[in-house]
Amino acid sequence: MNRYSAFSLLRNALSHNRNWRAAWRSPEPKKSYDAIVVGGGGHGLATAYYLAKEHGIRNVAVLEKGWIGGGNTGRNTTIVRSNYLWTEAALLYEKSMQLWEGLSQDLNYNVMFSQRGVYNLGHSLQDMRDIERRVNANRLNGIDAEVVSAAELGKAIPCLNVSPAARYPVLGASLQRRGGVARHDAVAWGFARAADALGVDIIEQCAVTGIDVSGGKAVGIQTTRGPIASDRIGVVVAGNAGVLAQMADLRLPIESHPLQAFVSEPIKPVLDTVVMSGAVHGYISQSDKGELVIGAGIDAYNGYGQRGSFPVIEHAMQAIVELFPVFSRVRMLRVWGGIVDVAPDACPILSKTPVAGLYFNCGWGTGGFKATPGSGWVFAHTMAHDEAHELNAPFSLERFSTGALVDEHGAAAVAH
Hints:
Elements: H1 3-14, E1 35-38, H2 42-55, E2 60-63, E3 79-80, H3 87-101, H4 103-107, E4 118-122, H5 125-140, E5 146-149, H6 150-156, E6 172-176, E7 180-181, H7 184-197, E8 201-203, E9 208-214, E10 217-223, E11 228-229, E12 233-235, H8 241-246, E13 255-264, E14 274-277, E15 282-286, E16 292-298, H9 310-323, E17 332-342, E18 349-352, E19 358-362, H10 372-385, H11 399-402
Parallel strand pairs: 1-2, 1-12, 2-8, 4-14, 12-19
Antiparallel strand pairs: 3-7, 4-6, 5-6, 9-10, 10-11, 13-16, 13-17, 14-15, 15-16, 18-19
Helix pairs in contact: 2-7, 2-10, 3-10
């Protein structure tokens, strides 16, 4: 580091952000917009960005009840993959993967997307049969996937316990090399800045208190900062989707649960990939700061709290120590929880509703972060054209009455 860089770093460190230019504006809400996106998480911001970029709809407001990145976008384990079983889900997640691969360049913002690979472990003969089935299905859909043996895992991940004497012996795994992780905060900030540059109003601290419906059509919303008129409203509020739906007298087939994760103290680089196991219920990667990022399954009870129960964390720790005995004495640094809304088939809802001009993007369960750009891309199309894109057409509300479900419980793995 030269003297100028050192001086610049010191100057900014002592400035208390006074001289930093805001990444996006903080405008007052207008009385009306061509489109409103409720929810300032990754999916909502991506929807607004693609509405402006792809469809030329720039008189758009994103309403966030808290602050950008304060919801599920900042409360996950940042895993990105597209190796889902059924064609409908796999193609939607693959679209997202393709957008991830060029997202930093598109947004002109480093989202720190790292394609370090994602392993899904198999611990039984049935696990391995399921893995081979999913890998073959992925390949038929043009998605990279391969089966690796326990011996290959031992070489690729030396700290993984592949001993046949383990309680849950590792027999092999699926591997998607294009999978990996991204920086959740950077994704939110990058989409927010890019949307703002295209004219989108990002309005924080603005909670929605009601949805105005007249003659079967959405005409606007009520907020803590006053009424706002619009005949095109997209609701993208993760675990709170059911609450917003009730405001329009709709009932969605979803349940909301807490989902927990935690990180360890920073340690030296030891894990350069993502490892997931449905059998022992845990998944892990290592952040750029050296922390072990560890996820658990959802809490069984319904709730809207951004916290969970200790037994779930305890169970996840047991799982990780089973897989990685070397981590047994690493100390936990912090724990957090997000709210996930889960549909009966473990797939999302990206759909028009019986109320004209009202659209819902929800039900992602534990797969929301990885779908961020793809979700916004197809939902923007749906809002712009009042018609689903072919990629999200299978994920309409109608599937719950016709029975055309897309059951992804297996490929969703341990809550992912």
